[in-house]
């Protein structure tokens, strides 16, 4: 160990001091005491200026690595970041099924109309809307409505959902009914939507839709689904379905099955506006404009919402049905709807379902 000469501060005797201490800045302020003075009751420990400072490190021990105390770091908290899309988010699916025998003409028009309505009339940011279509000009493989992409888009819709968020799901395409093997449907059938690759990958059942976008909704959030497809009455598997007759009187049907799992939310509002009942069909027609095809549900929904901004759910449902009935009458007396009984006429008109019962004529729509 390298040393230098110094003198005892008590008796003046020459002593050797480790040069190592100078490397730590102590050379000018150290009070050294020799062994003789120490035996008379004086401390041999150097009198470091910061000795009484609890935050200062002791001098290093020779011959081993000194472990210096570390300044404690502020605790880190894991917090869910706020959504970069504000409190509004939407997923739109529009599927025409290309050259398929049962291709649809109005689905692509529907999603473009819905996107315009959400951004221009309801204030949804453009980058908060994820639209998946099978139109030929779509080059992004993640924007093709395959079963996988649709599943991912629905998860994205509710990811990080917080109180105050307003979510929208819109689907325009084919729907289907499948035998209920899980035994949780009152009528014995699951409702389903058909991705563009449903023939090879299968359909998306209402059980999965409910588990993905309904059950995660926290208190204070809201989801509105506009489902323009056949067999769509309970496609979100919501517990209650509203029945409205031609005079405007309504009642709620309970679709809960005692053997089924919970199908509600975590306190949020979930509402589905569907094109028809579970055994009904949806219309893809040009009767509204006379030129371009459109889904009857999508067209009548946007028209009603633009006419009156503070609609209640009851007013919306009646306005949509009025628009669709008017188009059918304009279409001609040979329309198949004229030969149906009353029950079947209701089955082919817009339906409302929700996770809870409420007064449809007093509750305003807030999207």
TrEMBL record:
Belongs to the peptidase C14B family. InterPro entries: Caspase-like_dom_sf, Metacaspase, Pept_C14_caspase. This is Peptidase C14 caspase domain-containing protein. Residues 52-81 are annotated as: Disordered. GO terms for biological process: proteolysis. GO terms for molecular function: cysteine-type endopeptidase activity. It comes from Medicago truncatula (Barrel medic). Pfam families: Peptidase_C14. Residues 88-354 form the Peptidase C14 caspase domain. It comes from the Eukaryota.
């Amino acid at each position: 160990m390298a040393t230098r000469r110094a003198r005892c501060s008590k008796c003046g005797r020459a002593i050797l001091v480790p040069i190592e201490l100078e490397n730590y800045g102590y050379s000018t302020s150290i009070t050294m005491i020799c062994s003789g003075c120490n035996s008379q009751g004086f401390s041999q420990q150097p009198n470091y200026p910061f000795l009484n400072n609890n935050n200062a490190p002791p001098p290093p021990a020779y011959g081993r690595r000194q472990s210096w105390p570390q300044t404690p770091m502020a605790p880190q908290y894991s917090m869910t970041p706020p959504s970069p899309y504000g409190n509004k988010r939407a997923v739109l699916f529009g599927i025409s099924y290309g050259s398929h025998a049962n291709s649809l003409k109005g689905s692509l028009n529907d999603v473009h109309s819905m996107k315009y309505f959400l951004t221009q009339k309801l204030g949804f940011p453009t980058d908060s809307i994820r639209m998946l279509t099978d139109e030929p000009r779509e080059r992004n493989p993640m924007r093709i409505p395959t079963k996988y992409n649709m599943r991912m888009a629905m998860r994205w819709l509710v990811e990080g959902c917080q109180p105050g968020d307003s979510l929208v799901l819109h689907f325009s395409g084919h729907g289907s009914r499948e035998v209920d093997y899980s035994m949780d449907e009152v009528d014995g059938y699951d409702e389903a939507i058909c991705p563009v690759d449903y023939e090879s990958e299968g359909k998306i059942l209402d059980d999965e839709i409910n588990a993905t976008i309904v059950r995660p909704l926290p208190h204070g959030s809201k989801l509105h689904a506009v489902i323009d497809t056949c067999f769509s009455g309970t496609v979100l598997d919501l517990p209650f379905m509203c029945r409205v007759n031609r005079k405007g009187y309504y009642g709620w049907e309970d679709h809960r099955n005692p053997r089924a799992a919970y199908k509600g939310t975590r306190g949020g509002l979930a509402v589905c506006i569907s094109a028809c009942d579970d055994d009904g069909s949806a219309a893809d027609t040009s009767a509204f404009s006379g030129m371009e095809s459109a889904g009857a549900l999508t067209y009548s929904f946007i028209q009603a919402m633009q006419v009156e901004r503070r609609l209640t759910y009851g007013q919306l449902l009646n306005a949509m049905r009025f628009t669709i009935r008017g188009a059918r009458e304009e279409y001609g007396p040979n329309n198949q709807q004229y030969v149906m009984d009353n029950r079947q006429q209701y089955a082919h008109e817009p339906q409302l379902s929700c996770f809870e019962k409420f007064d449809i004529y007093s509750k305003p729509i807030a999207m």
